[in-house]
Amino acid sequence: FSAVLYTELESHPTKEIIDMAVEEVNSVSNTYSLQVIYRQYSYQSSDVFDSVCSSLEEGVIGLVASGSSNNVKIIAEIATNFHVPSISPSATNPFIQQTLTTEYLLNLMPSDYEQCKAIFELLKHHEWKDFSILTSADDYGINGMLKLQSLAMAQGFKILNNQQFVVPGSHHDSGY
Fold first, then answer.
1. What pLDDT is stored for residue 51 in this prediction?
2. Which pLDDT tens digit goes with each residue over 49-85?
3. Helices then strands (H, E): number in the chain?
4. Are 75 and 86 in contact (CB under 8 A)?
5. How far is Cα 176 from Cα 166, in angstroms, rounded to an integer?
6. What is the DSSP string of 92-129?
7. H or E element, residue 139
8. Which residues pair with 35 in a beta bridge?
């Protein structure tokens, strides 16, 4: 059996963990052997699509979809059509929900909304009624900021400043 780890990075922090898990599974099973195929893809949707289709043609039984929420969504939607489970250690976009198009996706990270609820609870606990928001200018930052603003305004908190920045080296760092 084969599973694929998709990543936008050449070296991935979960690779060592996955290798250890596969080694453990293979050490206790006499009936099958699990192997992991590592594939790197670019930020281009067509590259992600081609890579997933190629993996499915090879008969993989699962996908680990690392990287941006947009790419995780593409991977999960294709995999779901073939009833192949996918796991994401990194997608936090709240719009990737358990729907019919992603019902085989397991997100390991809480969504941006859930993370903002936790941040807001810290603000309430410490009675920080006035605060500023500094966030990345991408889906992760923008969705989280909107939820935090909503929670704050509903409870009379004051947002002193709200700034967004482009993360250097990200695919969003293209001059727009």
1. 85
2. 888 888 888 888 888 887 777 888 888 899 999 999 9
3. 5, 7
4. yes
5. 9
6. --TTS-S-TTSTTEEE-SPPHHHHHHHHHHHHHHTT--
7. helix 139-154
8. 2
Instruction: Report helix, strand or coil for 176.
Output: coil
Task: DSSP letter for 173, please.
Answer: -
Residue with tokens 């019902």, as numbered in its chain: 103
Q: Which tokens go with 14?
A: 């979960």
d(CA 40, CA 64): 12
For residue 72, give both structure tokens. 């995780």
Q: Is the dihedral of CA 5, 8, 10, 15 positive or negative?
A: negative
Report the C-alpha dihedral over residues 99, 103, 106, 110, rounded to 10 degrees.
Answer: 10
Which residues, other chains included, contact 144 with Cβ-Cβ below 8 Å and sequence gap of 6+? 112, 113, 115, 116, 135
- Cβ–Cβ under 8 Å, residues 91 and 66: no
- Which amino acid, one-letter code, is at 153? M
> How many angstroms separate the CA atoms of 43 and 103, rounded?
23
pLDDT at 5: 62
Is residue 91 within a helix (H) or strand (E), and if so which, with residue range?
none
Tell which residue, 34, 73, 81, has the closest CA to residue 53: 81
